[in-house]
Amino acid sequence: MNSSVSLAELLLAYEWVSAGDAGAGECEVYISREMGTHHWCGDGADEDTPDDVGDESLYVAVPRRSELDLGRSLALRFVAERLPGEHDATLDYFRKRGAYARFKSMLARNGELAAWHDYEQQATEAALRSWCSEHGFTLVA
To answer: What pTM was estimated for this model as a whole?
Structure first.
């Protein structure tokens, strides 16, 4: 039996864990395989973590952006499709800290920022749908 997971709640959890420091484990969300419930763990979480949350047979950790290949490589795919003349500059952005700020400034200068947000949202939802399927969850609106 597949547990149902809300797309809206999964997106919130994904954004929260992606914003945290993966090395410090400060932001984690686990989904119960049986119930589909979310358990928010770490700084800013206001719930008690189940004692068995580390048991991978019972819970699945919500992936971070980097785990779903939705960071640098997604930005480069977008540029290749929409702004191929900006490819080298985009590669340079991602070689230093603050890459996304420079990347988004470039998109704004080229009138592509809204298109980027749509592209990123569609890619995120597709990746999360695939992730749910791989882990036996049924995604619901």
So the answer is: 0.85
